[in-house]
# Entry
Amino acid sequence: MHQPDHLKTVGLKSTLPRLKVLSLFEASKQRHLSAEEVYKLLLTSGDDVGLATIYRVLTQFEQAGLLMRHHFEGGKSVFELNQGEHHDHIVCMQCGHVEEFYDATIEARQKIAATDRGFTIHDHSLYIYADCNKPKCPNKIQS
Amino acid sequence: MHQPDHLKTVGLKSTLPRLKVLSLFEASKQRHLSAEEVYKLLLTSGDDVGLATIYRVLTQFEQAGLLMRHHFEGGKSVFELNQGEHHDHIVCMQCGHVEEFYDATIEARQKIAATDRGFTIHDHSLYIYADCNKPKCPNKIQS
DNA sequence: TTGCAAATAAGAATGATTATCATTTGTGAC
DNA sequence: GTCACAAATGATAATCATTCTTATTTGCAA
# Structure
């Protein structure tokens, strides 16, 4: 997936903390992680990286295009691997479960809405907040 | 627009600070205001209300359905009068100008996207970040 | 190897927002 | 209209996510 020195190709020294954060995203079962979650997961696996470094690295990865940042409700940023294809998100308000979707019609209508008003789109964010209704949904917002 | 005791009808005592905040939203040229902006505008007009009260009142108004809260990029909440009709937002990344739009197709496709996956929609937020390309656009993000 | 710019870690600082608590103020009962 | 008291306010401390500072460490090119 990533060559060991993939970081170099995006202009970043391949340091230990950066490699750990990147592998975490590649290995994690959970696709969407906050800085705090990355910090705690690394601590748990014995790799303790400073929280400030996590924030710095996540921001650098975002700028390098390796990660994408999202602002779900709750006031904290979450990150996911950028694997090219754009998509939007449905977030379960009960258990925090996130599902991704892509709808070409929605994308097209957005472009029309913007250009009709003379705007040039840079980016957009669409979050649907819902109940996932899954039997396993613990009905409790994950911290 | 609002009777003087409109606040009572939503279960809130009609106090001076609350009346001032409400009139500000009804009178303001700018439809979307942050807590800090409300605070400063009231200060300017001689009505000084504590910042903590502003935050409290804005949250109460949101819960009462008088205001709607939005999270544009930039980490602060902005509020606008809730006048019933749902709409989404295009935000100019240069000057902060906000334009509203409603697209029935987008709304419908969102509902489909969610129900197809077994979700029950509570709410959604769609923000388009763009350049407004207006001649008067000062090309600078407003604080 | 060695040297040094770049990166890290720890903790201080920041900005938005919320909590605390003593004081003030609507409001319903008289 | 006046009173009494619960509810609301204001000042300030506290909190939470995030960024900055600075001394120390580390990747990497010569």
In short: The CA atoms of residues 21 and 27 of chain B lie 10 Å apart. Chain B is about 35% helix and 20% strand. The mean pLDDT of chain B is 92. The radius of gyration of chain B is 17 Å.
